[in-house]
Amino acid sequence: MEKPRAVLFDAYGTLFDVYGIGALAERLFPGQGQALAVLWRDKQIEYTRLVTTSNDGAHYRPFRELTQAALRYACKRLALALTEASEQQLMHQYHELPAFGEAREVLQALRERGVVTGILSNGDPPMLQAAVASAGLGPLLDHVLSVDPLRKYKTHPQAYALGTQATALPAADILFVSCNSWDALAATWFGYRTLWVNRYRLPFEELGTQPTRTGETLRDVLAFF
Amino acid sequence: MEKPRAVLFDAYGTLFDVYGIGALAERLFPGQGQALAVLWRDKQIEYTRLVTTSNDGAHYRPFRELTQAALRYACKRLALALTEASEQQLMHQYHELPAFGEAREVLQALRERGVVTGILSNGDPPMLQAAVASAGLGPLLDHVLSVDPLRKYKTHPQAYALGTQATALPAADILFVSCNSWDALAATWFGYRTLWVNRYRLPFEELGTQPTRTGETLRDVLAFF
Fold first, then answer.
1. Which residues of chain B make contact with A56, given a CB cutoff of 8 A?
2. pLDDT-derived band of residue A105, with 50, 70 and 90 as boundaries?
3. Looking at beta carbons, which residues of chain A come within 8 Å of B147?
4. Average pLDDT of chain B, as a whole number
5. Mean pLDDT (whole number) for B167-176
6. Closest Cα to residue B177, out of B158, B157, B156, B199?
7. Crossing angle (nearest 10°) for helices B63-77 and B33-53
8. For chain B, is the Cβ count within 10 Å smaller at the N or the C terminus?
9. What's the CA gap between B90 and B68, in Å, rounded?
């Protein structure tokens, strides 16, 4: 099989390490940080799906707003009193996320091979630009693609189609990389070649489709080349 | 405001009590039953959303199949060995669900007032018919509507539109009742009057829309009349 001509990465949890969010949550709410971080993340994803499915985008709100709404829900659910200061601290984490340790070397290796690189994310442009700048990855990325102009989140096929449009390549020539199993699944459905980076040794989704490959870190991208 | 002319109920967790599923899970996997029931239910709903959003129904599978896939995922995630016998026992629970204690009297009261009654559910027709028969609610329901022919699950607006089509009533003349906050939310977005039956004292979704009313049991339906 031909080598991929472009590699598109999911952002949160894939290129950017969101561990610090849970750590801050634990400092703010001792003993509840892990529960808050998990519920916050689950709700954030749920909200992207609810607004995407319902009424053709009429209820779309940018990722920052859904993230904030999900945080408020999660705190209410766990009976945690969320002060304005704590909310701002937690939300601000999304603007200064570190990249995973191996992200830079993998992106550099791709560039050296002449492979097109990019992010394809649910994040809205200001969030993404802040994270890219904070992690210092800007010079290594050809594309930073946000679903925001579409008003539809992944896993909508139009969201994945941003990658083929931006690169002017067919999906089968693009490797899509995600640590989120649902994202790797839907990208496979869309037609991308996929790498599921299974950092946390989780089972894959049971919907009858497997990613092209499964790896443990971003370094496994390089095995495609 | 005019009284509603029809009342449509969500099925699982709203008319039908799914508590027995967790109880059986606990007998099969002592100490893990609650975790399994929660993860199973969350994954079941997640799978309805993934197949609805992705590729316009190409990956649709009936609710029974998604429910089974979600059970398998949840057991793998929790490292529980799911035998074929245990899987069959757990899946069979969906076919013999009891109704909540007050369901019958509420449906009877609606019928006495000449109000059209029905179920609007993600369940596929065999699952729904089995649950309706098991709970003995068939004679009290004018409609048992499944999203299955559409190949799209709630919260897709076409799923909610099954209710207006079947009753030939405008959405504003129909009361939609659900214990699931996401369902009450999206039904409100669709245009139904809504009652969120908040049995477990949870927060409502933080997406800027409230249900028409919030109650604690199905009896709160009758306050609309």
1. 157
2. very high
3. none
4. 96
5. 98
6. B199
7. 130
8. N
9. 9
CATH of domain B6-17+97-224: 3.40.50.1000
The answer to whether the Cβ–Cβ distance between B155 and A76 falls below 8 Å is no
**Residue % of chain A over a pLDDT of 90:** 93
CATH of domain B19-95: 1.10.150.240
Catalytic, out of B10, B124, B148, B183: B10
A207/B51 CB distance under 8 A:
yes
The residue type at B122: N
Three-state DSSP at B197 gives strand
CA neighbor of B181 nearest in space, from B210, B156, B218: B210
Query: Does A38 contact chain B (CB < 8 Å)?
Result: no
Q: What is d(CA B108, CA B99) in angstroms, rounded to the nearest whole number?
A: 14
ipTM of model:
0.95
Residue B37 at interface with chain A, using a CB cutoff of 8 Å:
no
For the domain made up of A19-93, give the CATH fold.
DNA polymerase; domain 1 (1.10.150)
